[in-house]
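Thanks for the sequence, V.! I ran poly(ADP-ribose) glycohydrolase right away. Repeating your input here for the record:
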Amino acid sequence: MCSGPHPRNRQLTLSESLGLSAKRIREDNYMCSVANDIFSNPNFTWKNKCLKLSEMTTFSQTIDKYSKTDLSKVKNGSVSSEYVDAWNASYVKMPCSPHNIYHENRQPVSRWGIIERALSSPIKTVEDFRKAVLTYNARFIDDWNFKHLETALKMEPNFESLLSKIADLSLKLPQLIPQPIPLLQRNKETSLTLNQHQIACLLANAFYCTFPHRNAKSKDSEYANYPFINFGTLLSLNFENARKATVHKVLCILHYFHRIFSTDEPPQGLVTYTRRCLNKSVLFECSAVPIKSIAFGVSSTCLIEDANPDTIQVDFANRFLGGGVLHGGCVQEEILCCIRPEILVGLLFFESMESNEALIIEGAERYSRYTGYGNTFKWAGDFNEALDAKNTRDEQGRWKGTIVAIDAIVFDRRKSQFTVEPIRRELNKAYAGFSDDLAPYRPLPRVVVSGNWGCGAFGGNRELKYLIQLMACAHAGKSLAYCTFSDDKFAKRTLEVFEALCSSSCTVGQLWNILITLDVPQLNNRTIREQQLFEYSEGLQKKPFLELYRVAIDELNTVKSNSTMNALSRSFSRAQFFCFSTLRSASVKSWPTIDNPWRDKLDTSKPLTYPKNFVVSKEEFKYVEMLKPQAFVPPSPQGVEITPSGWVPPRPELSSKKPYTIVRSKNHMLPVYVIVKKKKRAEQTHGNRTLTVIKKVGGDLSALAAELEVLLKPKCEAGHFLCQVDEATQKIVIDGIFVDEVAQYLLDNGF
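Predicted structure:
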């Protein structure tokens, strides 16, 4: 009898090796979140942490209109499972709707019927998966190759059996969710509660790309204001999704389903999704709430997601929830969606956010660990809420902890963020996320865990964003735990600023008036790029922000006893003027005065004369003319193999053997270029794409593309060569920078 390899000698799979690591981590008890209370978390340094809850200021707001939908009580088999359809602009258009029509052989048929037949057939491999999905998504046959899914299953073969289980779960949609799901639209405060089994069913349908009308990229499409939900692009290797990290995002999703199917009973915990709207702008300039009314903690070692669970954790969001999670994005928000996949269901019904809105997600469970960030992101095994985070559920069955998604402004001109309107907008946005006075109109956790919100690719100044979030927390009555992401120096400076604000009894309104004085010419773009708001340079002298703040706050405190609003407003204007004067004088005084000792001896009455008896020499004209630009392109040199500058002439005896042609540019150079393009809005992520373009290609373009693939594929990231042949414009576009390689190849072939 043949026996398998000895267990000790068998090579461990990725999940098994990560599982052993996770077990050791749990035994080492290293996680930030093991502390029962974030105020006792050793990774944070706290100020004012002994405040009582009664000392924290809160405000009340009138509830206008707030609608709640709870679909969680619908359990399979426990109640009537008769499906109720709502195919209109107020509800999610479900795959199982009778109005979901697909044209097969030019005949309208039920798309759900096709989905049922396709997903009921055996799905054991990626090829089976591909055939099933493209049965009802035929127009994406050239776009969805599911290479990322294939790579993920090669890394973790045990997950391959999940394909059929996910298909079976997706077909239970009419029974698990028989009631229509409302769209959580703009400017409407609404909540939706689902149980975790229903969420898994919806994500299974997203995995198999069954949701209708959700793949269009046109700005005029029906769901242009909603994120993408179908996973076709995430699972496929294409032009906009070529990162290695995408494979690990897929592993996070597969691990989530592995956890769902690992128990006999389906999960029945609840998750609540809420859209909240701020009806009118808050007058922060009139706020008398002292900064010292809240506690502030800072950590350079703890990540937001590793902080204690019963907190408000900030999602540095795109206005479309999820950002580029289904595309190439892999930063804070995308990683959060991968380790807590139940957030992804929000992509189905959350419309993009307005400037006065925030999204609240309560009870989303964390399933995965990870390492790295951006291109280095990797799935690192299982995460257990109860064991690793020491988390518990509330009375409704939700895991304790809240995710708040707030989107910051993207600043192309970084100086503009110091003007009044952007500061007010960011304050309102942060307050909308932190306050208890908006939907769902009940107390949220009392500590906000955040960090450099809106910085990085968004261009925000982290010091300004820190002050904005501190003001919003104080006005909302929440303490702030700030993660500086390994920056010890910045962590120390935030504590110094907080101590200065508390020692001078600064209020939110006073700090507002200090901030708006920063809109001055002395704060140039270079200073802002160097992140020196707390201590910036003016001329030759350093003028710390804290010094300016203390001077201005003393001026404000002289009129602190005035009780009327008019007197308070006058004091604000007075302090603002004082800060402007201080900044101006600091700038002028920073330049030393230099006196010329010969100034008094100059004869100013004597007119200036210039020599006239000079001779014009044309001997040097020939050297000057060499510096003038050419008025015409000279003909290429004949009878040379290579010029001193390195220019190589074409060799027709070699190029004529190829089935394609390359026409050189008018200055006799090869038409091979690098272009940098901004990513499209439909990709829902930021950044640029770098491409190599070969122009003026005639004949068989595909033959040249095939030769370049053989040449460049070993040099591509992960061995994936992405190329586009455009015969109409006679050009070939390659993802990446390969100008030197392509040019040398064309020269070697005589072009």
